[in-house]
Amino acid sequence: MTARIAIIGTGNVAWHLARTFENAGHIITEVYSRDIIKAKHFTTDFFNASATNSLDFRKSTAQIFILAISDDAIEEVASALTLPQDAVLAHTSGSVSMSALGYAQTKNIGVFYPIQTFSKGKKVNFDELPIGIEGDNDFTESILLRLGSSVSTKTLVMNSQARKNIHLAAVFACNFANHMFTISKEIMSNKGMDFNLLAPLIEETLSKSLQIGPENAQTGPAKRGDFETLDKHYEALSKSEEIAEIYRIISQHIIDYYA
Ligand SMILES: NC(=O)c1ccc[n+]([C@@H]2O[C@H](COP(=O)([O-])OP(=O)(O)OC[C@H]3O[C@@H](n4cnc5c(N)ncnc54)[C@H](OP(=O)(O)O)[C@@H]3O)[C@@H](O)[C@H]2O)c1
């Protein structure tokens, strides 16, 4: 199937989906941004896409409209869109209900949620990337499933509640874990040391966690009950109250978990 797709948004997810769809043989018809300069800049990478800052898509030849914009803007932008007849409109959020598209001009609303972290410019392999699909009717679900299957072998149907659960778990697994790396990097660089010294440790942590399960992979002073070491670390963090508090709460949680 070759789909004609309009991308609404020019952020991280829009950047990845537009490329992935075009590489899979689909046609990107338009790219919307409220800032026309951003839309124009974005479209230069695509064969047939035109840039727009108008939400009036009446003359669009796209069949699928992907709303890859900030969670908080989804409902407002969806209701402001003017769409061609029978258009399928899907947002890409893990945490926003499909019903946020309820005021859109089409009854064909759904969700296309790629379970991955995306940053512009950092390539991601979609081949086995899980994509959660939801459709308000069979037609929408089948269109989005076909679109998902054209880029990944792991497309699956899930409702808004299941998607929200995954997103909550993903915040811990991805966003919080990554913030721990940021704190770790700051501790190293404050002492003039190279964060990359920890690269093998980080890689082994991820691979071991996936291989034997995170609950079996835990090591460290809190797991061992080395309270003197915990006190020394806490003391070393005394100048950064918030980081010390994060250290204390997570260490206590590990102690309680393995008690
Ligand atoms: N990044 C991820 O790892 C990831 C993964 C899975 C799903 N998602 C979901 O994908 C969606 C997009 O995320 P993202 O990471 O691509 O966000 P992003 O990089 O921050 O981009 C957000 C986009 O939304 C646009 N926008 C914000 N408010 C708007 C408004 N009121 N009207 C029109 N456009 C507006 C922004 O336009 P301006 O540039 O003009 O501000 C920008 O193009 C979100 O629903 C997110 O939950 C993200």
Folded structure, characterized:
The chain has 259 residues and is α/β, with parallel strands linked by helices. The chain folds into 2 domains: 4-158, NAD(P)-binding Rossmann-like Domain (Rossmann fold); 164-258, N-(1-d-carboxylethyl)-l-norvaline Dehydrogenase, domain 2, CATH 1.10.1040.20. The chain contains 10 helices and 8 strands. It has helices spanning 12-23, 36-43, 74-80, 138-149, 160-190, 199-212, 214-217, 221-224, 227-236, 241-258; strands spanning 4-8, 27-32, 50-52, 64-67, 88-91, 109-114, 131-135, 155-157. It has an 8-stranded mixed beta sheet with strand order 3-2-1-4-5-6-7-8, with helices on one face. Bound molecules: NADP nicotinamide-adenine-dinucleotide phosphate. NADP nicotinamide-adenine-dinucleotide phosphate binds next to helix 1.
Features:
alpha/beta; 10 helices; about 45% helix; binds NADP nicotinamide-adenine-dinucleotide phosphate; N-(1-d-carboxylethyl)-l-norvaline Dehydrogenase, domain 2; about 260 residues; Rossmann fold
